[in-house]
Design brief:
By secondary structure, this protein is α/β, with parallel strands linked by helices. The protein contains 25 helices and 14 strands.
């Protein structure tokens, strides 16, 4: 039982004994005491005032007196308005440190016998992984590790979006413009190689569209549009004819692609052949997808991302269609006159949602129904977590509501781990124009910046080439992960490569350096870390550090409950920052023997906590920097 649980239990007893009232322990609020006030932990009295029918100060003093009499480690208390601040003895905190130092699994919960399937990454096989995928991957990986630390059995899985019109576009471009080249012949990474052809398709389509705008067919389409409300509204706002015409052609591109474009028609024909199992098209599809998978795997390994299983859209979309047709027969879904199949989710405030198009092809939610069923049949998961950007919030509301409506018990356990988009200081990324920042390019850039700043420090001159390379990778990859994970997932963010590797401020580099500093201290100490504490009094900074280390368990629990690695990142930074203050203000190796041994033990416990915390973020520590 941790300190907060102990305090809650005794506060509950105090309320019963003092006011003859039953009060639920989960309504008792206990926090760390704010630094401006005297105390270690604070009981929020306001929720109890109504039961006690006394002023907050009276309630606080009465409960404080009760707790001090019952708990020998409470040495004093003070009540400030509705806040009861409790002070603990040095002996209590020294005993706490002893227990934490002796427990290598401190902060990790035992098994709770619950299973989680956590999906993350979800790339399309027509282009390389990019910066947006990096946020997805480091977030999904970290939440998986945090849930493991909270006692869950976690299965990390990936969904590969390996079919559809976008895939056919890159295939068609390679057919038309590739001249038989391969990743090997061009010495390009497979996913970059294929992605270049997706960009090539769209460039050729843009050229085709630009030429078409000067044709009679384009003029007819424009004349049909001009009497409409959109054009009239633009005219009323003062736009001239040229601006109105430009707006039309910007809006009409998708219509053009579907109705007039030769390239668009060829891509659709290829998709029809793929659906029909055409041997030649399927062979090309497998070849190009394999090129992409090889490229993905290299990026995953470098970034430290792993999966237990990969699900392919192409292998599960038919199962989803089968389920929809079964539900149609049951009357859970309905069919429109054009042959399309829908589900009524108005009761769930989600309107009506299409499940199968009029031509019988599936939509994304249909595919997800099939995959959800396959996962449940294999893992019998209690929770199913999808790491996907916040533009898909509605999609996952529909998925959950649909599975619930068709009677799938596991629907209740579905959670959308939604996150905001990530941009660069220069602005948004656009994959069709080829302006996306590839994951590999970004990693190279940040590792290069880590190398530059580390070599400038002059502290690794005795490193071998292999040791230096390994260090640069640890710093660079850690910088990327930490910079992204320190932001609450739901917030949109800007990734700045230069700031991510800075030694000052909230960066992984600063935290890694703090860990390395402690390793240097231990080497200079030259003995086994002591396992016995011989001091009896604490300096304020020592007490603060012990309190922060003690909070690691609570931090991991909070991060798991909220699916939020930023809780861990911010905690770790503040722990490292406090340690560096301790390092600068208190002597360690030059102190008397008992104090030196204690401070070495405390420093080592901080290092172990930093290492565990960074591990939950997927970041490696290093003994030297």
């Amino acid at each position: 039982m941790n300190i907060i649980q102990i305090l809650k239990q005794h506060t509950q007893d105090a309320i019963k004994n003092l006011y003859d009232a039953d009060f639920e322990s989960n309504k008792i609020i206990i926090n760390e005491t704010i630094k401006d006030y005297e105390g270690d932990m604070t009981v929020v009295v306001f929720p109890i005032v109504k039961i006690a029918r006394q002023k907050p100060e009276q309630v606080g003093d009465s409960i404080g007196q009760y707790l001090q009499e019952k708990l020998d480690f409470i040495t004093g208390f003070n009540t400030v308005k509705g806040f009861l601040n409790l002070s603990f003895s040095d002996a209590f905190w020294l005993d706490k440190l002893n227990g934490i130092a002796a427990n290598p699994n401190y902060g990790m919960q035992p098994s709770n016998d619950q299973t989680v399937v956590l999906e993350y990454c979800g790339p399309n096989t027509n282009k390389p992984l990019h910066l947006g995928h990096i946020r997805n991957m480091v977030l999904g990986y970290s939440v998986a590790e945090i849930l493991k630390a909270n006692g869950y059995q976690v299965h990390k899985v990936n969904i590969l979006n390996d079919r559809g019109i976008a895939i056919c576009k890159s295939m068609l471009a390679w057919q038309k413009f590739g001249n038989g080249e391969t990743p090997k012949s061009t010495q390009k990474k497979g996913d970059h190689f294929v992605g270049n052809y997706y960009v090539k398709f769209n460039k050729e389509l843009n050229n085709e569209y630009k030429a078409w705008q000067n044709t009679e067919a384009a003029n007819v389409a424009l004349q049909e549009w001009l009497p409409g409300k959109a054009a009239q509204k633009l005219a009323e706002s003062g736009k001239d004819d040229a601006s109105i015409k430009s707006t039309f052609f910007k809006q009409y591109k998708n219509e053009y692609t579907n109705k007039y474009s030769a390239l668009g028609q060829e891509a659709r024909e290829m998709l029809v052949k793929w659906e029909a199992g055409d041997v030649e098209v399927r062979g090309l599809w497998e070849q190009m997808n394999n090129w992409v998978y090889e490229g993905f795997e290299q990026t995953w390994q470098r970034l430290g991302i792993d999966f237990e299983e990969h699900y392919k859209e192409s292998e599960h979309y038919e199962a989803g269609k089968k389920t929809v047709l079964e539900e149609l027969d049951k009357g859970t879904m309905y069919q429109k006159d054009d042959g399309s199949v829908w589900i009524d989710l108005e009761a769930e405030k989600l309107d009506h949602k299409i499940m199968l198009r009029k031509d019988g092809t599936s939509v994304y939610v249909t595919q997800d129904i099939g995959i959800a069923e396959a996962r449940y049949n294999k893992y019998k998961m209690d929770k199913s977590i999808y790491t996907v950007g916040d533009e898909q919030n509605y999609h996952f509301q529909v998925l959950k509501a649909t599975l619930d409506k068709i009677g799938r018990d596991y629907a209740e356990g579905i959670h959308h781990l939604s996150y905001g988009m990530v941009d660069l200081p220069t602005g948004k990324m656009k994959s069709r124009e080829g302006t996306v920042v590839d994951a590999d390019d970004l990693i190279d850039e940040v590792v290069a910046k880590a190398k530059q700043s580390t070599e400038a420090s002059g502290k690794i001159e005795d490193f071998t080439s292999e040791q230096a390379t390994e260090l640069f990778e640890k710093i660079g990859i850690g910088a990327i992960r930490f910079f992204i994970l320190q932001v609450n997932p739901q917030k949109r963010m800007i990734f700045d490569p230069a700031k991510s590797v800075e030694l000052e401020g909230m960066t992984s580099t600063f935290v890694q350096y703090s860990y390395a500093r402690i390793q240097s201290l231990l080497r200079k100490y030259g003995k086994e870390v002591p396992n016995e504490i011989k001091i009896t009094q604490l300096e304020p900074l020592e007490r603060e550090l012990i309190l922060m280390v003690n909070n690691f368990e609570k931090t991991v629990l909070t991060a798991g409950k909220e699916y939020d690695p930023s809780v861990i990142a911010q905690y770790t930074y503040h722990l490292a920052k406090t340690f560096n203050k301790f390092w600068n203000e208190l002597s360690i190796l030059k102190a008397d023997e008992a104090t030196k041994d204690f401070r070495v033990l405390l420093s080592n416990t901080v290092a172990q906590t930093i290492q565990k915390a960074l591990g939950l973020l997927g970041i490696k520590t290093t003994d030297r920097m």
